[in-house]
Amino acid sequence: MSGILVLVEHRHGQVRPVSLEVLGAAVQAKEASGERLTVAVLGARPDAFTEALKLAGVDEILTVQTASDAFDPDTYEAVSRALIQDRSPSLVLLPHTIDTLGYAAPLAAKGNYGFTTDAFGLSRDGDAWLATRSGYGQKVNMEIEFPGRATVVVTLRPGSFKAPDAGGAAVLGSFAAPPVAERSTHIEFEEPAAGGDVDIAGADFILSVGRGIGEETHVEQFKELADAVGATLGCSRPIADSGWLPKAHQVGQSGKTAANCKVYIAMGISGSVQHMAGMKHVENIIAVNTDPEASIFTIAKYGIVGDIFEIGEELRNHF
Amino acid sequence: MKILVTIKQVASLDEDFELRDDGRDVEADFHVFDLNEWDHYALEEAMRLKEGAQDAGIEVVVATVGPDSADEELRKCLAKGADRAIRIWSDDLEGADPVGIARVLAALARKEAPDLIFAGVQASDHAYGATGMALAGLLDWPHAAVVAGLDYSPGSPCATVRRELEGGAYATVKVQTPAVLTLQLGINTPRYASLRGIKQAAARSIETLSPAELGVPAGETGAAGSLSRVRRVYVPELGRAQMIDGTPAEQAARLASLIKEFRGEA
Q1: Domain B2-214 is classified in which CATH homologous superfamily?
Q2: Interface ipTM
Q3: pTM
Q4: Tens of pLDDT along A18-30?
Q5: Which of A302, A311, A315 sits opposite B242 (nearest CB)?
Q6: Do the beta carbons of residue A98 and residue A160 sit within 8 Å?
């Protein structure tokens, strides 16, 4: 068993950036093991993606012609399994994304491959792979091993690895897709709802509220506070799910990324992986939370352990 | 018809906790148990279907793989209106990973023969996001992950699901049934149990089974049926914010000056 296999994802005709991060991890794994790195891309016109995959360290790019560019879990599973059977890789790397959630576990469970998810670290112990992931709401790290498994499938946490540099000398090839009995049909994509005057991605100063605000009636005072300090009002998932603020305010994996933010004030947000995915890159994060152990304090530059209502009221006096 | 809802008793940690002597987990004394947040939504979606189609006579069965303590979470589901509760356990399951758990649930699903299986997208403790979809794979059923909207008429050969993608996008997909769906937070608004429901649930019986009784071979139970093993657990070196101490007024004053400084006003 030798080789590293990566299946990339694409959406709207573009390779998803998170798949390039996975390639970065795969290049590191190649350096650690000396194994050959093969990248596979499937779709109705897979050739369109090969240029974006010619990156330093990639040995081989395989195109797999399938019925549609839209994600179908049965197709991705069948193609992955056929590739694993054909190439016998020791390691299969996938991004820990919504689409991969739909097929990686069935692939591994049926094929009895070693399997873990949401890893942010990969290492080598002799000729075995080890993965590192979080446990207990990020309070601990877990080092995962795969005794007796010749092939190991690992999904990688977005934002944990850097894409490789351009260049390289990958060989192009194609791989015949196995027959697939699709049991689901893609009907339509829905683009993110228009944000109106809320522009999380463009804002340079965001004040976000989370579960700590407690009740819907408290939203208004934080709206006023955000206005007073000149910030765009953001929120974490539970606030949008409850309908207390429109989804356009939501920061995080399923919401918006605070792409241009310079200052981010997190009030009553404990800091889930999904929320932090949308804001942990911000240079100046200030977190206010009653729980001194909240995860948000591990990525914030400044922290205040305190009551967000008291701090909010006091803050108003300065603006 | 029947809907099987698979749930998990999750553990969070006390503020100060210690690792087990073998270093592979946290000492159980420091666990604080609760029902996985996602499972409230999975149960609610089943209840919504049941109550929306009274004529269909939908039976909602909740099941979990866990020790005695997990009964508490099953009772929460009974209190909200689930018809039956099943708990499967044997000490061999102690070392099971998500796929090891899914093998047991698959054996249960073959016995119960539900029309739909709902699971949470992931559990709030370890967030593997794997058990529900592994279950679908082992059953070889159609499946969809991260479902944020469901349109299904009882008895229909397919369900229309709205999958939540990254960045606020969605994909609508038609899935053949029987199917396994993992449900996302926000798909509905979970109800609270009534006092009467809680009282009644306390007296209800919970069916208990062992993996062997479900026909799971010993060679596929627990660690033997798992695809991974925790080698060690450790507390990571984490960054720590510079803490602003003082009275709320002092803290807010410092926060205000930081804001002004960052914004180039001071």
Answers
A1: HUPs (3.40.50.620)
A2: 0.95
A3: 0.94
A4: 999 999 999 999 9
A5: A302
A6: no
